[in-house]
């Protein structure tokens, strides 16, 4: 294409005037494309012929800026924040606008806590802070400086699941599983609320401690956690099971290799009967 511009062929762009110089951004894009010595007219003709236009040029510049940015550098207005997550302490330098959800996922690689609506309306981001439920998408990381944060990753004891996790598995209290970490964290904190004697909107006698966790009681207390798959009946059953002390036996989990799957001799699926 450059040869065509320089050859004097029909449609070629003549060399620019003395003041027909590239801007700094245009020169950066030309270097990214591996061409030099272009006048501005030649540059614009090249960009037009290549079909890049303003959007493509902006993408090239953004790529250069990202490559030039120092990695691991704290933002200019960073504040020191110490997050105590699942028993471990993490000293971070964070933009004061960083939410607890983003701090967990982007800075601590704890991706079990999910970002759903990011507006505090779905409950997928629920974590436990000092024993109480908290929507991490609406909580600034700096607000929980030094407080004890528990995420879904911190509930199990090694490879032994928390009773609530085991109950969700036993009762099949999920389908796609995206909301499940928030559901389980919310359910664990719910039982702590019951133990403290906290009343809900449907508690019949607020002067007495709730002893029977009815369907209505569970649904009211879990109303901030949405399950788009509609697994609510099984979620309610799992929570009631743990509250009543009838939780299933503790389960363990691990990844199963291909050889182990073959050894199970499971029936084939999807084929003709």
Automatic annotation (TrEMBL):
Keywords: 2Fe-2S, Iron, Iron-sulfur, Metal-binding, Oxidoreductase. It comes from the Bacteria. SUPFAM superfamilies: 2Fe-2S ferredoxin-like, CO dehydrogenase ISP C-domain like. Residues 79-155 form the 2Fe-2S ferredoxin-type domain. GO terms for molecular function: 2 iron, 2 sulfur cluster binding; metal ion binding; oxidoreductase activity, acting on the aldehyde or oxo group of donors. InterPro entries: 2Fe-2S-bd (IPR002888), 2Fe-2S-bd_dom_sf (IPR036884), 2Fe-2S_ferredoxin-like_sf (IPR036010), 2Fe-2S_ferredoxin-type (IPR001041), 2Fe2S_fd_BS (IPR006058), Aldehyde_Oxdr_Iron-Sulfur (IPR052914), Beta-grasp_dom_sf (IPR012675), TAT_signal (IPR006311). The keyword Nucleus does not apply. This is 2Fe-2S iron-sulfur cluster binding domain-containing protein. It comes from Coralloluteibacterium stylophorae. The lineage of its organism: Bacteria, Pseudomonadati, Pseudomonadota, Gammaproteobacteria, Lysobacterales.
């Amino acid at each position: 294409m450059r040869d065509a511009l320089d050859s004097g062929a029909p449609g070629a762009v003549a060399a620019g005037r003395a003041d027909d110089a590239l801007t700094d951004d245009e020169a950066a894009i030309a270097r990214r494309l591996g061409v030099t010595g272009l006048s501005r007219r030649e540059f614009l003709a090249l960009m037009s012929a290549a079909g890049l236009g303003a959007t493509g040029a902006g993408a090239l510049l953004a790529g250069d800026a990202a490559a030039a940015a120092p990695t691991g550098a704290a933002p200019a207005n960073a504040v020191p924040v110490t997050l105590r997550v699942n028993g471990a302490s993490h000293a971070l330098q964070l933009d004061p606008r960083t939410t607890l959800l983003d701090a967990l996922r982007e800075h601590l690689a704890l991706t079990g806590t999910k970002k759903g609506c990011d507006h505090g309306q779905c409950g997928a981001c629920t974590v436990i802070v000092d024993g109480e439920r908290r929507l991490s998408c609406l909580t600034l990381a700096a607000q929980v400086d030094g407080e004890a944060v528990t995420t879904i990753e911190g509930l199990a004891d090694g490879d032994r699941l928390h009773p609530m996790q085991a109950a969700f598995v036993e009762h099949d209290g999920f389908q796609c599983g995206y909301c499940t970490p928030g559901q389980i964290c919310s359910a664990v904190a719910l039982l702590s609320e019951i133990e403290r004697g906290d009343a809900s909107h449907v508690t019949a006698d607020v002067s007495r401690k709730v002893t029977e966790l009815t369907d209505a009681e569970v649904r009211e207390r879990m109303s901030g956690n949405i399950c788009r798959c509609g697994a609510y009946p099984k979620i309610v059953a799992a929570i009631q099971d743990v509250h009543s002390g009838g939780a299933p036996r503790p389960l363990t989990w691990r990844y199963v290799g291909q050889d182990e799957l073959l050894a199970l001799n499971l029936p084939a699926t999807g084929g003709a009967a």
